[in-house]
């Protein structure tokens, strides 16, 4: 097969492939091994599904209903491109007895539209607005897997992990914020075996790209306010915006600016050395060389020395989250938290900052006991192994999939009930 993300190679017999996949699925659920010809992307997804505690005979849980669903839809960025989705895909879905579905970054279905009889059939397996179809909740499926791996993907018949979904075929593509690159969710086409064709995958991918282009036009980047800004959350390399231009920084330069942005009074060379390097043998000469290179990137006048300091305030996305959290605005703080700051950094001061920020958010979420906010954290990549948050979520939303994930997590960690959280995510 030339494209591993496409379900069937040209000339393949769909009926025979279905039979082979059913046998492979039974082999995996009974023995834990994945025989050929299961695609690598599907095999990896089955393994993730099993680790998440998904049961092959399970079903999706409906987490958002009525007013909660309406409010979440209204606030979601993909609401702006639903008219585009309907224009490009609505007729195709209805005429082909398919469904158009749009999910958020956590795999929750926000819109499911299409042929009336197909909607009724899909409703029997809870493929409905408000249901969580994340891979960690219902296993391999196109919208859930697309957001899990951040790639367009096609899932055919018994490639689905949950048995009651295996009569269906779907193709989905992720949609990103065109300015920040942040994953917003996915657009999906779901129906019968006829969708197991390269064209359906190419179609949803083209629709996702059109949506990103439309978002760029509908929500243009606001003009630079004059002061520099630093974006670090959920990215290994910070982006500095200043003077109308954006610069992607190296990891070390990202770390230096994160630290200097928090210390307007500056840091001495020795303080920076301790903050940046675990290895005590690193010399001041190494640090000075990094600072010389950083000064060249920043341009004249922004970085001063003795002590090292910024000559203008630098607004960071970390500070924005901290201010909202300090004001008790937990919902907006979580909305602004796009992930841990510089997640790959091992600089001691950055590691401490990353932990403090996550701990502050976690503590506020657990204290507030808001099921939706807890679920948003628990189903994010940084929250999948967060034992305390999962326990808090199960307390307020004891769905079967949540309880299964918690049981799997406790078993995997082999810890007694009440043990403290994972130290670092």
From TrEMBL:
Pfam families: GAF
Keywords from the UniProt entry: DNA-binding, Transcription, Transcription regulation
Domain of life: Bacteria
Taxonomic lineage of the native organism: Bacteria, Bacillati, Actinomycetota, Actinomycetes, Kitasatosporales
Keyword presence, Transcription regulation: yes
Keyword Transcription: yes
Residues covered by the OmpR/PhoB-type domain: 244-310
InterPro entries the UniProt entry points to: GAF (IPR003018), GAF-like_dom_sf (IPR029016), OmpR/PhoB-type_DNA-bd (IPR001867), Sig_transdc_resp-reg_C-effctor (IPR016032), WH-like_DNA-bd_sf (IPR036388)
Name of the featured protein: GAF domain-containing protein
């Amino acid at each position: 097969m030339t494209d591993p993300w496409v379900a069937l190679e040209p000339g393949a017999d769909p009926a025979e492939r279905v039979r082979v996949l059913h046998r492979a699925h039974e082999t995996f659920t009974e023995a834990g091994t994945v025989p050929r010809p299961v695609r690598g992307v599907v095999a990896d997804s089955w393994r993730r599904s099993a680790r998440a505690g998904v049961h092959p005979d399970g079903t999706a849980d409906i987490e958002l209903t009525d007013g909660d669903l309406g409010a979440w839809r209204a606030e979601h960025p993909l609401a702006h491109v639903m008219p585009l989705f309907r224009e490009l895909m609505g007729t195709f879905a209805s005429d082909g007895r398919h469904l158009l579905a749009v999910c958020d970054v956590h795999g929750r279905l926000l819109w499911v539209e299409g042929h009336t009889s197909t909607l009724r059939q899909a409703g029997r397996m809870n493929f409905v607005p408000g249901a969580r179809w994340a891979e960690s909740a219902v296993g391999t499926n196109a919208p859930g897997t697309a957001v899990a791996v951040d790639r367009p993907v096609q899932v055919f018949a018994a490639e689905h992990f949950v048995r009651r979904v295996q009569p269906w075929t779907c193709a989905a593509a992720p949609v990103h914020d065109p300015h920040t690159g942040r994953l917003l969710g996915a657009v999906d086409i779901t129906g019968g075996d006829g969708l197991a064709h390269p064209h359906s995958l190419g179609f949803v991918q083209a629709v996702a790209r059109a949506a990103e282009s439309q978002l760029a036009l509908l929500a243009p980047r606001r003009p630079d306010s004059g002061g520099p800004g630093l974006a670090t959350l959920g990215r290994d390399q910070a982006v500095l915006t200043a003077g109308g231009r954006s610069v992607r920084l190296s990891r070390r330069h990202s770390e230096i600016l994160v630290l200097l942005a928090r210390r307007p009074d500056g840091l001495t060379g020795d303080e920076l050395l301790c903050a940046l390097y675990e290895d005590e043998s690193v010399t001041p000469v190494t640090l000075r060389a990094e600072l010389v290179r950083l000064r060249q990137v920043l341009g004249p006048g922004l970085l001063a020395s003795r002590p090292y300091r910024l000559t203008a305030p630098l607004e960071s996305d970390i500070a924005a989250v901290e201010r909202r959290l300090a004001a008790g605005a937990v919902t907006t703080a979580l909305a602004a938290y796009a992930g841990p700051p510089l997640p790959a950094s091992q600089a001691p001061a950055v590691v401490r900052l990353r932990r403090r920020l996550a701990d502050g958010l976690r503590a506020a979420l657990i204290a507030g006991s808001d099921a939706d906010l807890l679920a948003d954290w628990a189903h994010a990549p940084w929250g999948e192994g967060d034992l305390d948050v999962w326990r808090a979520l199960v307390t307020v939303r004891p769905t079967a999939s949540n309880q299964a994930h918690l049981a799997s997590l406790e078993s995997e960690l082999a810890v007694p009930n009440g043990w403290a959280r994972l130290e670092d995510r």
